[in-house]
Amino acid sequence: MLGIQFGCLGLNNSNIYYSAKDNKVVNELISNSLFLGLIIFIFIIIIYFFSACFINFFPVSGLTLFLTLIWIPIFITSNLLQNLLLGINKVNYYNITELNGKILIFVTTFGLFFFNVKNLNLYLISNIISFVYSILFSIFYLKKCFYNYELKFYSEIFKKSIKYGILSYIACLFLFIINKVDIFFIKKYLGNEITGYYATALLIIDNLNLLSTVVGILLFPKLVKMLDLVKKWNYVKKISGYILLFNLLICIIIILFGDIIVKILFGIKFVNTVPIIICMLPNVILTSISNVFGNFITSIDVPKILLFFYFILMILNYYLNYYLILNFGIYGAISVSILTKVLIVIGLFLISKNIISNKVMV
Question: Which of 217, 360, 216, 240 is nearest to 300 (CA)?
């Protein structure tokens, strides 16, 4: 998965942005996506033969290594093409392609489990077949929407795509570090048992944020198409209000029935995570709001002030986690997490208002 994240370089987000912004460049984006996948595929083949003939830097070898490496460019290509369907607002085609791919993986995985076939290579092959299916049907649906492609490299749109992609990738990387550094310090200073409880609580909180994540994915192409900043901002505030009300209801349910839910999902051993989950509930509301504000900003561009803000916050978050976890344990980590989310919401709100006032060059 790490290879996939590095391989995309934010171009998956860029494909949504530019296909939503101007449908005329979709043909070029299809071609560049396929071309990029082909280049990565060739690069992967070179790595494989180097590992097979000279020095193997990987923990696996042979067919398993080959399938694992080939998995990367195929998934990247699938992801890039599927995001074009989101960009042109063909969510139904995206859902069909995504759902059928997941079903294919589930059926083959269940078949392997049912017949007690313990073979990693067969599992990898089933995944590769699923992603190839996604590529073929994404192209089919794009053609159905009157988009065609010619396998050639379009440098002008690529320059724009890679610039936006890398900037969004850096922003996401800073956010990833902000959200995960607490786990590093908890494991280092508090031990594996406490880390397990905290990681379980984080998993539940992340799942509670699923709605805002899905709304963000669907909202982003629509925001890109909206040119009037004031109307766009009013629409974002309206959506934020709906998500806020829904998440408040979810938080009330967790407060009332959290212990029952945890017992059913994870067992009685993890009941100790319930107080942690309840303390972290403000993050559900704060994250949902920050996701919508972040979509507003990146639907216009990725301003350098956003990267600077995330960078400063990442450093502050690191040292606060170090000090508070060392002195106050797991509740120190929760305090830092909530404080960071509050600062993110405030920062994104101010950047958004400044963009509307044309005080920030995007």
Answer: 360
Give the C-alpha separation, 103 to 27, whole Å.
29
Specify the long-range contacts of residues 49-58, CB closer than 8 Å, at least 24 apart.
none
Q: How far is CA 235 from CA 34, 220, 222, 230, 247, in A?
A: 35, 12, 10, 9, 18
Record the tokens describing residue 80, joined without a space.
Answer: 């890039």
Report residue 226: phi and psi, to 5°. Answer: -80, 120
Residue 276: other Cβ atoms inside 10 A: 20
Q: Is residue 7's pLDDT more than 70?
A: no
Compute the CA torsion angle 164, 288, 213, 86 (nearest 10 deg).
-50
Query: For residues 11-20, b (16+ Cβ closer than 10 Å) or e, as one string?
Result: bbbbbbbbbb
Residue 213: which residues within 8 A CB-CB, separation 6 or more?
291
Closest CA to 158 of 264, 255, 36, 20: 36
Q: Give the global pTM.
A: 0.87
DSSP classification of residue 191:
-
pLDDT in tens, 160-215: 999 999 999 999 899 999 999 999 999 999 988 889 889 989 988 988 888 788 88
